[in-house]
């Protein structure tokens, strides 16, 4: 999510009431690996508008905006159990998905997290993913953002079951119409066989 990313530029241009933005937590100490520097930022969010607002505010910081990569992931659990989630690699291939995997494994919800990386000149290979997730995990734990009450799994299952039942009822209705159509087609064929060319009904032989 560098400033060259069109999605970030668009987000930064959106008007946002910063008074209503959640508190943004940042790493107390950067993680440094072979001169590459990693810093995490996270905030509790309730909707996509807040996600965009948090990112927009972060990008107003010149140092953060100039990071080589700003890897982002968010996960929001709605009151009905529906989950909104997404991620952005910002050029660090597959890093966003791994960051999203982390917050899923930690069962953290209603969160947006951004890990800024400033490249130090040495390629880190797969170690960069470890550094990104380690930096994110440390912040979530230190800021106690990992203590957010998880969604009620039983409620979620009940909600999915209710939706499945509604779908099943619709399926049964479609199935009934299909059977009725087959029966009408059979009756039409039988009637056609017993009608002469002049349209008069013929008694079965």
From TrEMBL:
GO BP of this protein: GCN2-mediated signaling; regulation of translational initiation
Pfam families per UniProt: Impact_N (PF01205)
Impact N-terminal domain mapped to chain residues: 34-140
Gene Ontology cellular component annotations, sorted alphabetically: cytoplasm
PROSITE patterns to which the protein is assigned, alphabetical: UPF0029 (PS00910)
InterPro entries: Impact, Impact_N, Impact_N_sf, Ribosomal_Su5_D2-typ_SF, UPF0029_Impact_CS
Top-level taxon: Eukaryota
Family annotation (PANTHER family): IMPACT-RELATED, PROTEIN IMPACT
Stated family: Belongs to the IMPACT family.
Name of this protein: Impact N-terminal domain-containing protein
Organism field: Apophysomyces ossiformis
